[in-house]
Amino acid sequence: MQGTVVKVISSSFYVEVNKNIYICTQRGVLKKNKTLPLVGDKVIVDLNKKVIEKILPRINEIIRPPVANITKGIIVTSLKNPDFSTNLLDKLLVELEINKIKPVICLTKIDLCEMKDDLINTIDYYKKIGYTVLDNTNTTLIKQELKDETTVFIGQTGAGKSTLLNKLFPSLNLKTGEISLALGRGRHTTRVVEIIEIDDMKVLDTPGFSSLSFLSYNLESVKNAFIEFKNFPCVYKDCNHDKEPECNLKKAVEENLVLKSRYDNYLNFKKEFERK
Ligand SMILES: Nc1nc2c(ncn2[C@@H]2O[C@H](COP(=O)(O)OP(=O)(O)OP(=O)(O)O)[C@@H](O)[C@H]2O)c(=O)[nH]1
Ligand SMILES: [Mg+2]
Ligand SMILES: [Zn+2]
Fold first, then answer.
1. What is the model's pLDDT at position 179?
2. How many CA atoms lie within 13 A of 35 on its CB side?
3. Ligand 1 and 111: CB distance under 6 A
């Protein structure tokens, strides 16, 4: 039978087949190949033995959170407590872009934050380059984004992912946590990734994280994931926009056509590869 992995708890795989959940283990040969079934995987299961026999080809897989076959990503970005970080936002955008997952940026805690010009300009820039930016009070618009998609909610711990899902779907009643307590305890309120199916929507609540590495990708794909950079082609097609003397992207940054923090974050991510 074919099913979908909806939750993983250590080595128990919760597989949904025709609306029923079966707790399965994985076949020895998969273990030997070190291919771990991920939440979102389409799998072939033996329902008598409750064993995952085979993982079907993935359309994509992301590293953190470890999930597969995702079509959309809501990047839950808090403006305060935890504070807004373009570095983290750009990281998450890069990760989704590389995996061909359509990103939507959802701001939270606008009630705690003064909307200074700097912040407004930054947010407007993301809209200008083509991203949908909503905030967690726009529940109708967010729900429209979820229709017929498998959507992962990602972002820092305490950003408000579970709170947002509860707002969208009050019956979920997901656990949410005080940020100060979460940070104090050094752990997350949401502990496991789970697919929840509601009407024509599949959503995944995920635990927040504190670090994300790109080292399993390559510099070229990280560069391409900054979607607006291609509007400023350089003389050399393989220009890495760093020490190269004639770089149109650097010129565009100087002329304020490209947001400086985007470029700086790109250089930061590039350094990560150079340290490798
Ligand atoms: N003032 C305010 N508080 C919010 C908002 N959204 C979430 N919170 C609060 O922020 C805290 C953390 O929210 P959660 O939804 O648990 O955060 P999370 O992203 O799911 O965190 P993890 O599960 O640890 O990854 C809770 O106390 C929420 O009530 C918001 O828009 N405004
Ligand atoms: Mg949560
Ligand atoms: Zn360049």
1. 62
2. 16
3. yes
